[in-house]
Design a protein that fits this description.
61% helix, elongated, mainly alpha
Length: 270
């Protein structure tokens, strides 16, 4: 893989980092029926426990790894990081820390991290956190694959907060690619995505348009047009994914700018 870079123009991403195909497939297989779940949905659902739990569960399934990576980078061992992450999310799914959440809390990214820090402090202080998760059934997290992923994190990243932000952004990107792949599959265009999906990544070597055209039985011009459309649709989906993590549309561009800054500081492979 190569160094990641992002640029931004008119609220859209122009260049994306390298993706792990296997991880994209893994994310795609985990897609639920609630792809439109947003932070605003969660806030609006506060008065309905079942609806709020459903929305929170979907968000937790998407973004638990950045929390785990943050704790591991903070120095917690594998078992303790697993214990804290699972206990924190169980608490979150019980709506314990969510009861006082309001739209002005702004970004899900910062709200989750702040809540996790508070939970971590309590966990360290009393060491009584249970992994049972209370009366809600816990999501099945893939701890072994998470630990393997963490072991491959760049050693030059020293800040837990920075690693959290970096993996949050990576998760958004992986989810947007998985959503796009799912969209193409539902439209009966799985083969088109299989061949042209590689062009979404500006950092990896790609076959020539002529070669892809031969595989698809299309003209070179048609392939170029299909790639442009795929890239544009992917930018739209990435922006929508980011919009789903903020409580106010006015915060979207600020969050995009923050994530671009994260990648701008990165000299690591992701």
């Amino acid at each position: 893989m190569v160094t990641s870079r992002l640029t931004h123009s008119s609220g859209q991403f122009r260049k994306q980092p390298s993706y792990e195909p296997n991880r994209i497939q893994e994310v795609a297989h985990r897609r639920s029926a609630f792809l439109s779940t947003s932070w605003t949905d969660v806030i609006k659902a506060k008065g309905d426990d079942s609806r709020a739990h459903e929305a929170l569960s979907e968000l937790c399934k998407k973004y638990w790894y950045p929390l785990y990576a943050f704790l591991r980078k903070r120095g917690h061992g594998y078992e303790d990081a697993q214990d804290i992450t699972q206990g924190f999310l169980a608490s979150f799914l019980r709506l314990d820390s969510f009861a006082n959440c309001h739209p002005e809390n702004g970004k899900l990214r910062t709200y989750l991290l702040c809540s996790l820090r508070n939970y971590e402090s309590n966990w360290i202080r009393n060491s009584k956190t249970k992994r049972s998760g209370g009366h809600f059934e816990l999501i099945s997290y893939e701890w072994l694959s998470a630990e393997k992923r963490f072991s491959e994190e760049p050693s030059d990243i020293q800040s837990p907060e920075y690693l959290y932000d970096l993996r949050w952004a990576t998760t958004l990107m992986e989810n947007s690619v998985a959503d796009l792949q799912d969209e193409y599959r539902k439209k009966g265009k799985a083969k088109l995505f299989e061949v042209l999906g590689v062009y979404l990544d500006d950092c990896k070597p790609k076959p020539s348009y002529k070669e892809s055209a031969r595989k698809l039985g299309m003209t070179t011009g048609s392939v170029k047009m299909a790639v442009r459309r795929m890239r544009e649709r992917r930018r739209q989906m990435l922006r929508a994914a980011i919009a789903a993590t903020v409580s106010n549309p006015q915060l979207i561009d600020a969050e995009i700018a923050s994530l671009i800054e994260v990648f701008g500081k990165s000299h690591s492979e992701i």
